[in-house]
Prior knowledge:
alpha/beta; 8 strands; disordered N terminus
Amino acid sequence: MSCLHEFWGLEFSPAQIAQCRTQGGLLSMELELSRACNLRCLYCYADSGQALQDELSRDELFSVIDQAATLGARKIIVIGGGEPLLSPHLFPVLEFIRGLGLDADLFTNATLLDRAKAERLHALRVSVSMKMNSLDPAVQDELAGRAGTHAAIMRGLDHLLAAGYPDDERVLGIESIICRQNYDEIPALWRWARDRRIVPYIEVMTMQGRALEHQNLEVSREGLKQLFDALAEIDAREYGNHWTPHPPLAASHCARHEYSCTVTALGEVNPCPGVNIPVGNIRFASLRDILQTSPVIRDLRNIRQTIKGRCADCEFNALCYGCRGHAYQTTGDHLAEDPSCWLKPRNGR
């Protein structure tokens, strides 16, 4: 298989990632603004709903973005923790990011978007990923924990389309979590997105946060394999995209632990939302010092050598290390093999 085939879905090149790892820097950073949210998604990793006491101020948000840029970050991904559009800091933060010459991605449930906000995002050249789990109103509303969510998402989508999304500079995506409730319709959702030039981010759920209260959400490893195989076949046959099915993302690779980190609404630095191990807090140490002195970050930056179990012997080890979040939430070890993965290691263990 060619390198272009195997690196399908990586947002940075292998050379950029290697340089970042060597220098102890960043290529991207995920940033929560608040835990406030207008939905109560059953699978929410952060169990969001109400804002936390003493969340990061605007100046603190600006400071950590500036620190990330100094460390080489090219993109800031605003994930909210809750719903970013509820934060009064959202547009000042996006303007600050773009003013530094960095790319900006926004993850939003889209229910609070109106035409003016959509046009403002477009003018700032912000890429947007909407949280959409189903085209069936009943299923979408059930997973979101709020009646009327599906209709509100579709209104938000209409505003984004009217503002000019997607185009060559502004990606429009949907983020979908694989659950038993939406499992059967994921192929249809995939086609729906591809046909509209919307990027489908279909990902395996991590059992953390509110998902722990809803054990009926989880899909078996065998079920995940069947679904990923089906999506790969659809993508190859109908859209000319060729990729090897493996968790946690369909048609993509997660390599974030080699070049990224997450800063929570309280300033804690975590490897990612799934590996929610606080390795420091930007209120008490610089981002540089936190990243360059943390043993957890060091081990994850060198994950190809430190990973354990079947993942260490897998023929795809140079490209994939499974989902660290799923491994950590399931086993308590962020370096453990990914229990959700169906690929076989070279030695057949």
